[in-house]
């Protein structure tokens, strides 16, 4: 066991390669994922939240929420994990982090059964090792009106087109296996979650969406109503032979602009609401230009042009022919 500090939380984690085989699952790569969720909840400012973590693992996500968010924002956090070892670890971590017992419940159950037996939650965070698909039906049923649903997918080989048939079976959409695969995969994920939500007359609208470190992450705001769900479904369509997928905004910029700023959030705010991006390294230039120079030229010519978080060598622009525009 080794002691790990993340944010304001302390953990005792088994040493070993990150995998499902670990007795208590903790992935340090997901620290950004957890931090952004905390900052988003802070920016939303909703009070007395009843939060559910059906796949709690080490408990790090909930412990950080309890220690880093104002006490007025959280009424209760329900930790659940199917693993008895994980449940024992959560209890230990709550104790060493001095988390009040009155604000927590810990259960050891199948994630879906945990949700089925509940009365519903204001925040549900689905953060599995692999695909989130098996947990989305119950999560969409149990998220409250105006609630926040976080969904992480690490099955990026499907979403990014390495296994297109598996993506079609799992996400009901055709992926791309080109430089644009990261955004296309993210938009396919969004649509699939929205389809499940629509079955229960819920419109799930992205508050925060991104692709990072071999995973995809979307945080949705749940709005109740048949007409709202219908309007959401109208924003699905195809793109360059891929899809169907979500064709509208990836971010609620009014909300994420209230989050604590860092370079990543600044980039998400700056990204234009354009579907797709142009990878400059995929263009046959005689001499590869610097991204900064390309952006400057395109902007001088009246085009929208910004960097994108999806790919370091790409830009988002409404210019139909970047090579011709900067030649």
How many domains would you count in the coordinates?
A: 2
Order of helices and strands: EEHEHEHEHEHEHHHEEHEEHHEHEEH
The proportion of strand residues reads 25-35%
Q: What is the helix content?
A: 25-40%
Strand order of the largest sheet: 5-4-3-6-7-9-8
Biggest sheet architecture: 7 strands, mixed
Counted beta strands? 14
- CATH level 4 superfamily of the largest domain: Vaccinia Virus protein VP39
Shape, please?
Answer: globular
At CATH level 2, the architecture of the largest domain is 3-Layer(aba) Sandwich
Going by helix content, strand content and strand pairing, the class is alpha/beta
Topology:
Blueprint: E1 2-6, E2 9-13, H1 31-44, E3 49-53, H2 60-68, E4 74-80, H3 84-96, E5 104-107, H4 111-116, E6 121-126, H5 133-142, E7 143-153, H6 156-159, H7 164-171, H8 181-198, E8 202-212, E9 215-224, H9 226-233, E10 236-239, E11 242-246, H10 253-256, H11 263-270, E12 278-279, H12 291-300, E13 305-307, E14 314-317, H13 322-326
Parallel strand pairs: 3-4, 3-6, 4-5, 6-7
Antiparallel strand pairs: 1-2, 7-9, 8-9, 10-11, 12-14, 13-14
């Amino acid at each position: 066991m080794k002691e790990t500090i993340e944010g304001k939380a302390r953990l005792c984690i088994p040493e070993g390669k990150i995998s499902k085989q670990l007795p208590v699952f903790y992935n340090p790569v997901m620290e950004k994922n957890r931090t952004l969720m905390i900052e988003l909840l802070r920016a939303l400012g909703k009070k007395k939240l009843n939060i559910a973590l059906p796949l709690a693992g080490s408990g790090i996500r909930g412990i950080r929420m309890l220690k880093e968010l104002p006490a007025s924002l959280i009424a209760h956090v329900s930790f659940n994990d199917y693993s008895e070892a994980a449940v024992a670890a959560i209890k230990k971590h709550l104790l060493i982090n001095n988390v009040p017992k009155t604000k927590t419940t810990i259960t050891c159950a199948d994630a879906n059964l945990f949700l089925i037996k509940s009365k519903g939650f204001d925040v549900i965070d689905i953060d599995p090792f692999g695909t989130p698909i098996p947990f989305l039906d119950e999560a969409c049923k149990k998220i409250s009106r105006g609630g926040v649903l976080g969904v992480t997918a690490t099955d990026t080989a499907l979403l990014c087109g390495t296994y297109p048939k598996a993506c079609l079976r799992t996400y009901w959409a055709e992926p791309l296996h080109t430089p644009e695969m990261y955004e296309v995969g993210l938009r396919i994920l969004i649509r699939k979650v929205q389809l499940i939500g629509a079955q229960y007359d819920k419109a799930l609208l992205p508050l925060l969406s991104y692709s990072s470190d071999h995973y995809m992450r979307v945080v949705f705001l749940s709005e109740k109503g048949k007409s709202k769900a219908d309007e959401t479904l109208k924003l699905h369509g195809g793109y360059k032979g891929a899809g169907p997928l979500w064709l509208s905004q990836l971010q609620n910029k009014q909300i994420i602009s209230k989050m604590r700023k860092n370079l990543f959030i600044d980039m998400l705010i700056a990204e234009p609401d354009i579907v797709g991006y142009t990878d400059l390294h995929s263009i046959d230039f005689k001499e590869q230009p610097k991204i900064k120079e390309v952006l400057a030229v395109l902007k001088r010519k009246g085009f929208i042009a910004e960097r994108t978080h999806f790919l370091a060598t790409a830009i988002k622009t409404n210019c139909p022919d970047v090579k011709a525009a900067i030649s």
